[in-house]
Amino acid sequence: MLNYMFYPRYTGMIERAGGSVGDGYVLLTLYQNGELWDMKTELIYIEPLDEARPFSLTDIAEQLEYIVRHEIIDDEIFLIDLRLFYNGAQISEMVNYIRQAIYDGIRHFIVDLRGNPGGDVTAGRRLLTAMGKDIPGSGFVRRFSPLSMENEIADSRIFSFNHKLTRIINMIADGIEIPPYLGFAGNLFDVYVTALMDGGTYSAATMMASWIADGGFGNLVGTPSANSPSFFAGMLFFNLPYSQLEVSVSSMWNWRPDSLADQNILWPDIIIDPAYALEAAVEHHRAMNRE
Questions:
Q1: Do 120 and 239 fall within a single domain?
Q2: Which end of the chain is less congested by CB atoms within 10 angstroms, N or C?
Q3: Which pLDDT tens digit goes with each residue over 122-152?
């Protein structure tokens, strides 16, 4: 949905489709079978975009001041400000910070996912694993094709299957279905974690928040995320043969771990204006520490 909202406004896409872009408007003339379909044209007032939105994680990461950073509040609350799920050196460094905090006795964590567009879900998995979390099992249906067989499988939610076995399955089957399973959830260090959410929390960020909620690891604060906790994933990219436009198609349907929870909306436990979500979360943790 976010892509649909964006790409029709991209100047290059409009002009490639035969439209013309004016000062704050787009003029489209429709044809059918090579003939003018309708002499009536309407001015569609929009805000044209002159540049395509950066799509690759690397492009987005290069525009950010940082991927992830942290601070410690009251010597007992570890705040993680995660801007993008980009599984690189900064995530590895944060894993080490988390492990040290656990060693030092910190058991309260806040992960700020407000405005986070997602990315490689492995980054979120690594952060929660460093806190001693065993991630609950998301269910999924994955369909295989020659295109999907050419791509690395992005995450390992096939539970007991490793990547090599998965590749073998790719060759002998056209799909696989795994139901969601909460039994994998575990909390080795008894860590309580809060995820901050808003309407910009998307994709892998929504998935991380659903792991926290469904695994019983803590709570969610803010407003519902941009996408459903159960969603299409496993995007494959290819170019159309004539226009060479890049398009994408999903190869997987992902179920949130708790099959009895709302599959369409990820509801926060504390619904509050996202601008005040951090303050609300900090007060919640302080109250827990006073008990």
A1: yes
A2: C
A3: 999 999 999 999 999 988 887 777 776 666 4
Q: Are strands 68-73 and 77-82 parallel, antiparallel or unpaired?
A: antiparallel
Return the exposure string of 90-105: e unless at least 16 CB atoms fall within 10 Å of the residue's CB, then b.
bbeebbebbeebbeee
Q: Give the span between the Cα atoms of 65 and 74, in whole angstroms.
A: 26
The reply to whether 109 and 209 lie within a common domain is yes
Distance CA 73, CA 93 (A): 19
Helical axes 89-103 vs 122-130, angle rounded to 10°? 20
Do the domain assignments include residue 50? no
- Residues 246 and 237: their CA atoms lie apart, in Å, by 7
Residues 17 and 119 in one domain: no
Beta-carbon contacts of residue 229 (< 8 Å; ≥ 6 apart): 206, 207, 209, 210, 256, 261, 262, 263, 264, 265, 266
CA–CA distance, 253 with 232 (Å, rounded to integer): 4
Cα-to-chain-centroid distance, residue 10? 23
Q: What are the beta bridge partners of residue 141?
A: 177, 253
Q: Are 194 and 288 in contact (CB under 8 A)?
A: no
Rounded to whole angstroms, the Cα distance separating 226 from 274 reads 13
